[in-house]
Amino acid sequence: xxxxxxxxxxxxxxxxxxxxxxxxxxxxxxxxxxxxxxxxxxxxxxxxxxxxxxxxxxxxxxxxxxxxxxxxxxxxxxxxxxxxxxxxxxxxxxxxxxxxxxxxxxxxxxxxxxxxxxxxxxxxxxxxxxxxxx
Length: 134
Fold this sequence. Notes:
Elements: H1 2-18, E1 25-31, E2 44-52, E3 55-62, E4 67-77, E5 80-86, E6 97-105, E7 108-115, E8 124-131
Antiparallel strand pairs: 1-2, 1-8, 2-3, 3-4, 4-5, 5-6, 6-7, 7-8
């Protein structure tokens, strides 16, 4: 009987440990640069996410520029998340597309953002934040 209970407890623990994080809803992420925002127009990113299976959709609010950007090519698997977001605010270098990739662990999201369609804003920028209550 002890073996049966031990087996049930191990199976339940494995199922809980392997369950994906819940990323639907609003996220508030701040830049993690040690000496200021790193990209002067983006000190924070606010995400409004919807998840359907492994597909992520929604809106990314990416600072004052590139601004509001619908999420495209969004994927979520396990604790990993990735998506693209094309802003609507043009600059002298064009309208940027940002690629985001990161992880969600214990209610915290860590994202790396790279500009994929704007040569003036090169580099990788890191954001960290938490799920906001509704």
